[in-house]
Please model this.
Amino acid sequence: MSEELVTLTIDGVTVQTAPGTLLVEAAAQAGILIPVYCYHPKLAPVGACRMCLVEVEGAPRLIASCTTPVREGMVVHTDNHRVRKAREGILEFLLIHHPLDCPVCDKGGECPLQDFTYQFGPSRSRFRYPKRHWDKPVQIGPNILLDRERCIMCFRCVRFCEEISHHRQLGVFRRGNGQEIGTFPGQPFDSRFAGNTIELCPVGALTGAPTRFFGRTWEIGHTPSVCTGCSTGCNVRVDTRHGSEVVRLWSRENPATDDGWLCDPGRFGFGFVNEGRLEEPLVESGGQGVPATWQQAIARAGAVLERHAQSGTLGILASPRMTSEELFSVARLARTVLRVPHLDHTARYLHPSAVDLREFAAAAGFAPGTLRDIQEARQIITIGVDLSREQPVTDLRVKKAVTQRGADLVVVDAEELELSAFARHTLRWNPGDEAGAILSLANAVASPSEADGLRAVGELLRKDGRKVVLLGWRIGESPDAGRIRESLAALSHALGGEARCVTILRHCNSRGALDLGVYPAEDPVSGRGMSGEEMLRAACEGRIRALWILGEEPLQDADPDVVRKALNSLEALVFQGWSLPAWLERVPDAALPSTTFAEMDGTFTNTHGRVQRIFRAIRPKGKARPGWEIVNDLARALGHPFESRTVEAVFEEMCEATPVYRGLSWNALGVAGRETAAGSAAAASAARG
Amino acid sequence: MEFVKGLGITLKQVFRKPTTVNYPEEKRPPSARARWRHKLLRHEDGLERCIGCSLCAGACPAHCINVVAADNTDEDRKSPGERYAAVYEINMLRCIFCGYCEDACPTGAIVLGPDYELADFDRASFIYGKDRLLVPEPGEVAREKKRLVEREIG
Model:
């Protein structure tokens, strides 16, 4: 191995590194700082800013270390007089038109231009002419403000749009003194990934419109957490002010989930933490929700649950955006104390047997895969999932596999998707005929003598290489599940059994809800429980007379007329959540305020089964409490107190009781999380393969 | 005879002009170097000097300043530039009157003034907002400047 390494000397330090490594990276490996603006490890090098100039012995001029690969025997100086003078000169040039409005700039305090100017720059400018002025700030997209005076022309944003998001909405216009970054006429910068350019921008030229003037960077507290927008489980840093308000979400790279990027809906979708919250318990009195103490509200809710659980008329709907600890507590209360079989986490599944999409895929013969597998795949097939909308950050991963590694993409869906532009083939099904489309794909792969339209895709998928199938959650909800399962089995057989399947679920903890049994399971006493959909219908018919609804998500996609009718037919309703949802037109008997992801500790399980911790970032709003604590109180009110008093204890009990979580430990999860048993089996087999 | 001498001293003191004043009926002008309650100054055109940058809060060793910034609009312009302080609060109970805020301010907006009468009856009223900190009208600036100059000269 060591023969293959290149040996060079940087500032007298001998560095051994792989051939092809850029000088700037080799220096970073040796712990030597070379200031950079245009260089970014995830973007192709351009050498635009000239900040990284170093002296290489034997070279007549200073060279840009971000575009120069290492060479055997190179002797590099990054801190001699010549280099320091060059840096000072470059910084003086960069600052010629810079407005130096750091006090009002959102980047101030975390700005490489500030930092390097302090560290390497001149203390004064010799430029005696008026600075160039632009209108500022210009809103170039729904989330992005552009300040061209601050821009230093590193092109990171433009390169991100070209190389990573492939939404070519930013360009460089004009030359010389008038050079500017801008959008194309009539085309706003409304990419779903626009927010990443705020992080990439090394100065304050691109700042977030929704987070404008969020506070100064040195006033901000940082807490590691997980985005709750979709089921990818992107790691985020929650930025808070005064410990009471979430002001910003920032990316926190985890190669297993997010690859360092965030999407705008996730990045800016934290408003629900700060606003519109249910802040204190409400108890129904005279047709109105009246503020009450926790004791009163728990007593009222407990009475409702107990009465209807005994008469078998209680249904429980828990949100797949609750933490695993909350879901586990709810499921435990339902199964062991209330003995209610009617428990679900959504009211959209039409076909009860299709609840667990991963088992569905496993039954079809697919090995479980992880999001990382996309990176190594030669062939990627998406079935019934619009990644660009449903899991934007996974969409970036697929684009990366296609454009940078030459993977072949096949899109199977009802319509042309954004990703179709990157696909070798797009197969479209007629609405309701998913099974037919998948089956014809399977046949095309299995036998070469298929109809012409599918021959090419068949040949493509018969090629060697790892294959990954991304299966969307809508597939599992189809009423045609039986046939879809058969055609998926045919497809997995045709692909050769080596194919991995990543199931793309909907919410940040849908996987956890499935793992923890928050769905109608076989119950030895009362038969099979009702699904969410069935509960609503049963409520309309009077067979379910009370519902305990936790969170907004279970009913957000259900037919609003059915929801209204069902809620109005109920005798009693207990609601628990962080805000009263729009569909809740009826005053609940008891409304219990729970905390959002920013106000509590816990874990989420992402779509492929990675368990990741969230950490409390701010104080709970009002009297809100974590859901598992509320459930603990309810259990006590019902005369069956749970023993676990801390979230860690709940987590341990959960791991004990849930086979896929066995062996996980609270502290070992750290800030990056761990794959579950099923996920690590996939990872292990990936390592073997 | 010793006691006559003592009485003599007493008598002398009785007719001497007292050094104390009848505060609060009577007030002594504070020293030119007195630095008490803060003020937020304005530009000569009446715009606020404060741009809501929070550098004062950053410099404050007692963490007694809270600034929340907002966007200036052309219709409702509070300060020159993009940003102004929508909320500017100083907790006078926490303040140690060190004057670091004054040092940190890039626009010379916050200055410590001679107003030392800060007693009050409840804690909440020690949190001074812009309503009390911001100087009222444009003419104030010139006077304040004059006062500052005098203070420097002593």
Q: What stands out?
A: The radius of gyration of chain A is 28 Å. The mean pLDDT of chain A is 91. Chain A touches chain B through 13 residues (CB under 8 Å). The first strand of chain A starts at residue 6 and ends at 10.
